[in-house]
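W.,

You were right to be curious about this one. When I first looked at the sequence I had no strong expectations either way, so I just let the prediction run and decided to look at it fresh. Below is the sequence, 296 residues in total, followed by the output.
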Amino acid sequence: MKRRNLLWYSLLFAAGCTTGVNSTNNSSDQTEITAPKNIKFAVTDITGIEDLQQDYGAFRTTLEDILDIKVEFFPVENPTAAAPALLSREVDIVFAGPSEYLILNARAKAIPIIAIERTNYHSIIVVRVDSKIKLLSQLKGKTIAMRKIGSTSGHIAPTKLLIDAGLDPKTDFKVVMLDDKGVEALKKGEVDAWATASDRYKNILESEGLLEKDFSIIFKGPLLPNDVFVASNQLAPNFIADIRSRMIQHQDKLIQSLLTSKALQRYKGSKLIAANDADYNMIREVYQKIGQGKFL
């Protein structure tokens, strides 16, 4: 998913829980699946209906065919807006990044359906090729360009790497959020290091007209938590289980439909796997360390 500027959005919202009324359809076996007549689908980092259609139109159509239920887009105003939408049953299924998953899970008791594993999704720390900095611990007292507050690969995970290297995120280094312009600031010497995602690195350099030979990756972190599809907890459990089963069974079609969008090439080579809540504890830990534990 695109990285997210989560903490700039409102941390408080008021939403009442409503009880959805589901229709009952007969499945091919003797078990009745309690399913609604249609479902609303949102993506946490896509705000407009036109962008949803452009990037996820093929996926929506494929999901509709697989589930044999009408799927409608529901644009959200910002990443955190999906939580009250789930609570009020304005939306049924949300595709979320790792940080947003924690918000939806904590604030709306969203149920993970399935995760999508990316083959090259790591955080990397980059310096200029002529830098004397070779170790993360040498970034003490330095300025680091990151992407956006709440970005998994461009803020949360790099902060975890620095914490593991013995640095205090509150006192030992300065962070500036520069989105993809962090590499330009590094090139000019305005920052000492730049944190980004491994699957974005070359594309960012290319878009800025910069060369790999001018930079050095001093650290590559472990594979990051997966993006995840979550469901409203007001949907019937057997319906959620049925969605999970069908998505796994038809995952090749679903992933291929994502790849029809130029913006979603990061999912090339991906696969759908079981979502494990414990995989996201790293993000919870970082929020605690930076003094934002109440956010989740």
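Here's what jumped out at me. Confidence is low (pLDDT under 50) at residues 2-30. And, maybe more interesting for your project: The chain is about 30% helix and 20% strand.

Coffee later to discuss?

I.
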